[in-house]
Amino acid sequence: MAAPRIGVLALQGAFREHRQRLESLGAQVSEVRLPADLAGLHGLVLPGGESTTIARLMTDFGLWAPLRDFHAAGGALWGTCAGAILLARGVQGAPPQFGGQQRSLAVMDLTVRRNAFGRQVDSFAVPLDVHGLDAPFPAVFIRAPVIEEVGEDVEVLARHAGQIVLVRQGRLLASSFHPELTADARLHALFLGLAAPPVPA
């Protein structure tokens, strides 16, 4: 079976690290900045970074509707940290200069709270028990959001200190932390499984 073709949204944030992890697993990876870059992809990673900055650039480059259409047509999406905020139906804690509102794709049945684990100086790493993995995952939290509510179709894969930090819903994956900042590629492998093209009948 051919390797899935994966895009990484390359507007801001840790997109290069995601590309490196995915390529180490044999995926064909390209950087996405314009709607045309989505053509032929099976999945897309929305990386960590600054969610309001990424949202503004998505508006500038006309990506909101094309990304929703990409997912509606079967494309898998994975949001890490800021990317998880961009997937969620509900976002709490947007800065006052944005009127308390955070624009998102609203494709995943989640409510998230921005920066719930503290400021940049409060960053930390912790071994995380993840459903389906046989050993803890080294999770890096940097100004991380927390997933406060999930819909009934959302599977919780991991919690930290009682808070939900990793979830899956169909071909959607969201993590509060930065899996690309470790050498452990197991969550990237999980996403490749979600994004894999269907086997012909």
Task: Supply database-style keywords.
globular, Pyridoxal 5'-phosphate synthase subunit PdxT, PdxT/SNO_CS, alpha/beta, 201 residues, Rossmann fold, three-stranded mixed beta sheet, seven-stranded mixed beta sheet
Question: Helices, strands, pairings?
Answer:
Elements: E1 5-9, H1 15-24, E2 28-32, E3 43-46, H2 51-60, H3 64-72, E4 76-80, H4 82-87, E5 88-92, E6 108-113, E7 124-128, E8 137-141, E9 146-150, E10 155-160, E11 163-169, E12 172-175, H5 186-195
Parallel strand pairs: 1-2, 1-3, 3-4, 4-12, 5-6
Antiparallel strand pairs: 6-9, 7-8, 10-11, 11-12
Number of domains: 1
Order of helices and strands: EHEEHHEHEEEEEEEEH
Mean pLDDT: 90
Count of separate DSSP helical elements: 5
How many beta strands in the DSSP annotation? Answer: 12
Fourth CATH level, the homologous superfamily = Class I glutamine amidotransferase (GATase) domain
Q: In the CATH scheme, what's the topology name? A: Rossmann fold
Structural class: alpha/beta
Share of helix, binned: 10-25%
Strand content: 25-35%
Main sheet characteristics: 7 strands, mixed
Low-confidence stretches: none
CATH class: Alpha Beta
Rg, Cα atoms, Å: 16 Å
CATH architecture: 3-Layer(aba) Sandwich
State the distance separating the first and last CA atoms: 13 Å
Spatial strand sequence of the major β-sheet: 2-1-3-4-12-11-10
Principal-axes geometry comes out as globular
